Amino acid sequence: PKTGGIYIWIREALGDRWGFFAIWMQWVHNIPWYPAILSFVATTLAYVFNPELAQNKLFVITVILVSFWGMTLINYFGIKTSSWFSTIGVIVGTIAPGALIILLGLTWMFTDQTPQFTFTAQGFVPDLSSIANLVFLAGLFLSFGGLEVSAVHAGDVKNPQKNYPRSIVLAAIITFLLVMLGSLAVAIVIPKNEISLVTGVMEAFRIFFDFYNLSWILPTMGILMIIGAVAEINSWIAGPTKGLYATSLHGNLPPFFQNTNKHDMPTHLLMGQAIVVTLTSLVFLFMPTLSSSFWILTALSAQTYLVMYVLMFISAIRLRYTKPHVPRTYQIPFAHKHRGMWFLSGLGTIASVFGFFIGFIPPTQLEVGSLLFYESFLILSNLIMIAIPLVIYQYRKPSWVRVASHQEA
After folding, report:
1. Can you tell me the distance from the alpha carbon of 194 to that of 346, in angstroms, rounded to the nearest whole number?
2. Does residue 405 belong to any structural domain of this protein?
3. Measured between alpha carbons, how far is 399 from 248 in angstroms, rounded to an integer?
4. In sequence order, which residues have a C-beta less than 8 Å from that of residue 310 and are 6 or more positions away?
5. Which residues neighbour 337 within 8 Å (Cβ) at sequence distance 6 or greater?
6. What is the DSSP string of 293-317?
7. Within a domain: residue 409?
């Protein structure tokens, strides 16, 4: 019931060490996610000016770095500036193109064109007996990541016991339908063996627009999608960083990272984040294709986020026993007061652990190059991301504390 998000929830259940660890994992999972999504920005930009650049690794890395450092600078001016840009960008660059590609896919079905996707029961249901198909679950988990953040605002919802779970289910259904219908629209016009994780959407738009003699719209659509992707990333740059900064005031990070500017933005944390993203982006130079680079970064992002979810589910169970009388905005309904919590948290924990380990298996549909590099990159990256907060907490100093530990972030 307290404000402060994942840090407060897990701190109340497992202690300050694991509260800091959780907010760290929530923040650090974005590090590989930023260059992955920005690679989409780069290839989309190439379609606007010169499609041949879409496969140029140096061009992709350059766009990634220029974009991210630019957004970091924007966030130096504060949350209000960032929020305005993100809201407008998501509307014109994500919702509108998403609705359009679904509409184009539906209209395509009423033409005499032969779809590249077979509309059969077998075509819609993935072959889960193959481990090669199961590995993509890691990316699916990531697409639903972040829904837990809404729990902070559950107290602002009218009749939260009834309306809050409805809103979560509705959000999950809408997300699933948009992703599924958008993916089907791409699969209708591009053979499955030729679909790129990075350029697939723009290639589908190109085919649709060429068919309807609307090729002149493609550059405009590309610009709108770039705005949408940049806005989505921009909305994440400040939020988790501010959350990590809040925990630093309790002595969980050195004073250097507690620095803020006149806009109350943690400039040193933002700068450090940009430097690490720059280093992470170099993976595009070592993977054989853009799709494989995109996937390995997506898998790493999902794995680190799932570690946080395991702690969240464990904390939910523990708080039900250690603080049963604390007023809660919403409680999981069930005949027995603890069975619902055990069932949902247990299911979530099992799914998170499964998703974490399945991420280490490279998809056979993608050319990942050296298996040694693929596995080493994921294993070492996970170990480093997990070890850093534990080491920092172990060797923290009393002089790092700027607020009393009982205060909320």
Report:
1. 39
2. no
3. 12
4. 349, 352, 353, 356
5. 320
6. HHHHHHHHHHHHHHHHHHHHHHHHH
7. no
In a domain, 408, yes or no: no
**Residue 407 within any structural domain of the chain:** no
First to last CA, the chain: 13
pLDDT tens-digit map of 238-296: 778 888 888 888 889 999 998 888 888 899 999 999 999 999 999 999 899 888 999 99
Residue 150 pLDDT grade (very low, low, confident, very high; cuts 50, 70, 90): low
CATH number of the domain that 97 lies in?
A: 1.20.1740.10
pTM above 0.85, yes or no: no
Range(s) of the domain holding residue 337: 6-396
Instruction: Say how many C-beta atoms besides its own lie within 10 A of residue 182's C-beta.
Output: 19
User: 229: which residues sit within 8 A by CB, 6+ positions away?
Assistant: 37, 38, 40, 41, 44, 93, 94
Calpha distance 293→3 (Å, rounded): 37
DSSP letters, 129-176, are TSHHHHTTHHHHHHHTTTGGGGGGGGGGSSSHHHHHHHHHHHHHHHHH
Domains in the chain: how many in total? Answer: 1
